[in-house]
Design a protein that fits this description.
By secondary structure, the chain is α+β, with helices and mostly antiparallel strands. Helices cover 47% and strands 15% of the residues. It has ten helices and nine strands. A five-stranded antiparallel beta sheet has the order 1-2-3-5-4, sandwiched between helices. A two-stranded antiparallel ribbon has the order 6-9. A hairpin with a 5-residue loop joins strand 7 and strand 8.
Length: 334
């Protein structure tokens, strides 16, 4: 018998043939696997042309969820925002169904984002990222996607429950997460919905999901976690990632200011939203621990108690830093 599989890596050469046939690309185009993860990413290269193929993991996103993601990208692209957008095949379709060993998997071909992934961002790049994020939020305010809605329950309560399936509740780090999740939820509840206007959020905006040219032009990609929620989630998560990259906190403050100024040039951040920034950054960080636990085979092969200690220490460092700045909205763990 052929032994069943729960996950597979599809052959790049055969995917190259498939794309060549369905998208009228050159049959001499080369296809290579860029990375595996929650989804698998392939680079297609043909004379004068490049594109990126995402193969979604089995049972990760429904077809309706993918369609909602693609509709969002096409809208943003039509509005002139620099995003990697889906490419239509020769019949006008965007989603390919692939008969993988584990079952049907979906694939989408995206435009290639020009530039490089840049860990050390220039002030000009930070401004451009803020402006692009602000334009995205401004153009989707009040919009509802057929995607997850990022409530405190999803970000915190459900993520903690997921973490409990892997880590013992008695661990000091898990006790900290239990306490801080309740306090973070209280911060959002106390602020109220008026302090966190909702719309479309990307939820994973950091340097690994954008390409930046030498002229500091930014293209955003990987909207796999896009959904509905407060705009401050995106703002805060970018700031939190920048916080961990910039060990010199004066440099962090300066670059964060460039980013926030770029954002404010398009969409004003209220005082209430700014006060939510520490809690919002921690909440998204919390959420991704839950994702890594649920999908650790792909998202984090290093998942362990030592990893949990490191991960929680970064959350503590973020909250402690803002506590020292005197924010009234930063929860304090007991």
């Amino acid at each position: 018998m052929t032994f069943p599989v729960s996950a597979s890596t599809l052959d790049a050469t055969m995917l190259g043939y498939l794309v060549g046939e369905r998208y009228n690309m050159s049959q001499t185009s080369a296809c290579r696997l860029l990375k595996t993860g929650i989804n698998h990413t392939y680079l297609l290269t043909a004379p004068g042309q490049q594109a990126v193929l995402r193969v979604y993991s089995y049972n990760w996103r429904t077809r309706a969820e993918i369609e909602a993601e693609l509709a969002l990208l096409l809208k943003l692209y039509a509005l002139g925002l620099n995003v990697s957008f889906p490419l239509a095949d020769s019949e006008g379709g965007y989603i390919q169904e692939l008969a993988a060993p584990e079952g049907t998997r979906y694939a989408v071909l995206f435009s290639f984002a020009e530039g490089d992934k840049t860990r050390w961002l220039t002030p000009a790049a930070c401004t451009a990222i803020g402006t692009l994020m602000g334009r995205m939020h401004q153009s989707t305010v009040g919009q509802v996607l057929e995607r997850p809605t990022y409530t405190p329950n999803l970000l915190l309560t459900q993520s903690y429950a997921s973490a409990l399936t892997f880590f013992a509740a008695e661990l000091p780090e898990m006790q900290y997460l239990r306490d801080i999740s309740a306090q973070l939820a209280h911060v959002f509840s106390r602020a109220g919905i008026a302090a966190a206007p909702t719309g479309t959020v990307h939820l994973d905006i950091w340097y690994d999901n954008m390409a930046i040219t030498s002229q500091d032009e930014v293209t955003l990609f990987d909207f796999d976690f896009c959904g509905n929620g407060p705009a401050i989630l995106d703002v805060a998560y970018f700031c939190k990632q920048l916080f961990h990259i910039e060990t010199d906190k004066q440099q962090y403050q300066e670059k964060m200011s460039y980013f926030l100024n770029g954002y404010a040039s398009v969409r004003n951040l209220s005082v209430a939203e700014r006060q939510l920034l520490p809690a919002a950054g921690a909440a998204v960080w919390f959420f991704y621990l839950g994702v890594q636990v649920q999908r650790f085979d792909w998202s984090n092969i290093f998942l362990s108690v030592n990893y949990l200690k490191m991960y929680v220490s970064k959350m503590q460092a973020w909250l402690t830093y803002h506590e020292r700045l005197g924010s009234q909205q930063v929860p304090q763990a007991n």
